[in-house]
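G., the chain you wanted modeled:
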Amino acid sequence: MIAPWLLAIHIAVLGYWLGSEFVINSTYRYVSYSGDMPFSERARLMEHVMHVDQHVRYALALQATVGTALAALYGYIPGGDDLAIAAGVFGVLWLAFIEAVHRLRHSGGGKTLGAIDRASRYVLMAVLTGVALKLIGGGWPMPEWLRWKLALFAGVIACGVGIRFALIAHFRTWAVMAREGPTDGTNAIIRRTYVRATSVLVLLWVFIAAIAVLSVWKPA
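Predicted structure as tokens:
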């Protein structure tokens, strides 16, 4: 049966997600507090951060689609094998879209693709919250611990959105630094932005830890 293998993947992806977040945060901190480093080198490292951020996006897509397949196979939601297969196909297409958004982000249609990508996160948060509150699938044989897990997953995605809002000041200031060179003032803004984004990231880690606890504990 494929369900145990999917469950193993589901667990592994959680570690993959956490590891990616740690790498992103540690590299971003290094860049933020390296004001004496040549800006070209800092910019190269920031580009690396953007590449590593792709792994977080991959993890989100994998968690959502593998989790949906597992829920269908275990009978928590209707659809059974057909829904599990559909989730797998959708997951492959979603990963391809994520890659396209990244590779085409500097192109003419990059902003449109980025907007679609952001909108999809709001839709996913709404669906997860709706299922958690029984506004969607209130009659499904889904245990309460799993509904709580979905609510926490929505919180994880919300934190990801919050981090991007926190980083708006970074990208604006970074563009100024690229044009005019870094100053004590702009470096201070970058450091403050790092602190704000990291504070949201800590909450994201708390949500992921709670998801792991619920997955093992499965309270009645």
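Residues 39-73 form the longest helix (35 residues).

Shout if anything looks off.
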